[in-house]
Amino acid sequence: MSVSFIRRIASPKKALTVAAVAAATAGMALTAAPAQAAPASASSAQAIAHKMIPDAAQFNAFNKIVSHESGWNPSATNSSTGAYGLVQALPASKMASAGSDWKTNPATQIKWGLDYMKSRYGSPVKAWNFWQANGWY
């Protein structure tokens, strides 16, 4: 059964699951292209943010911004601007004010992002409102 046939009869997630099971049964491995692969640390970065942002409305707003900006990839880089990390800091080195491990530590990036949103907009909810109106924050 070809993957294209599976895609025509099922949703993309279901097709991938079916294709992976078929490939495993046949002794093959499926791999995603690096640019399309979900970052392995996305769920852990979200869990860290959830602990740092206990208020549900504030977390949801922060989550929406980070999902749009970086897909929860702590090493996401905008090749045209140099914006970097979960919150796409520009310049990226600004995050050093939150910790020397800003390039690799999602908690440091989240701390810096929260501080930025609070100082510039008042809160993640207000930053999200601005993002919705402007497509950036």
Automatic annotation (TrEMBL):
<dbReference type="Pfam" id="PF01464">
    <property type="entry name" value="SLT"/>
</dbReference>
<keyword id="KW-0732">Signal</keyword>
<feature type="domain" description="Transglycosylase SLT">
    <location>
        <begin position="62"/>
        <end position="125"/>
    </location>
</feature>
<feature type="signal peptide">
    <location>
        <begin position="1"/>
        <end position="37"/>
    </location>
</feature>
<protein>
    <recommendedName>
        <fullName>Transglycosylase SLT domain-containing protein</fullName>
    </recommendedName>
</protein>
<dbReference type="InterPro" id="IPR008258">
    <property type="entry name" value="Transglycosylase_SLT_dom_1"/>
</dbReference>
<dbReference type="InterPro" id="IPR023346">
    <property type="entry name" value="Lysozyme-like_dom_sf"/>
</dbReference>
